Amino acid sequence: MGCEDALCERLRAEFLPLLGASVPQVVEHGDFWAGNIAATSDQMRVYDWEWTVLDGRPFFDLWTYRSPSCVTRTVPEVPTAYSGWKSA
Predict the structure, then answer these.
(1) In terms of DSSP H, where are the helices of the chain?
(2) Which residues pair with 28 in a beta bridge?
(3) What whole-number distance in Å separates Cα of residue 84 and Cα of residue 16?
(4) Which residues are 45's β-sheet partners?
(5) What is the 8-class DSSP label of residue 53?
(6) Gyration radius from the chain CA atoms
């Protein structure tokens, strides 16, 4: 079983109790992964909002942030590339 399959099984087990429950609408980023986040020790900015929806569900962004295929595609130069963002 690959890591994506294992994640699917884990999520299925965790979300099963929510079956039939009311799930709130949220602002959904749509492409939430480590490469779209710039952080310092006291602040964080999230970039790349073109896929945003105002009536989304909380689970899609959780999936893309926690999915191994997304987690492993981090961009090491992000802190350097966005080092001037505080003054912007």
Answers:
(1) 3-15, 58-66, 68-71, 78-81
(2) 53
(3) 44
(4) 38
(5) E
(6) 16
Looking at residue 4, its amino acid is: E
Boundaries of every domain in the chain: 3-9+23-87
Q: Which residue has the tokens 């999936």?
A: 63
Query: What are the structure tokens assigned to 38, written together?
Result: 């710039």
Please give the Cα distance from 87 to 83 (Å, whole number): 9
pLDDT, tens digit, 9 for 90 and up, residues 11-44: 788 888 888 888 889 999 999 888 899 998 899 9
Give the tokens for residue 5: 């399959």
CA distance 53 to 56: 6
Residue 65 CB burial class (10 angstroms; 0-12, 13-18, ≥19): middle
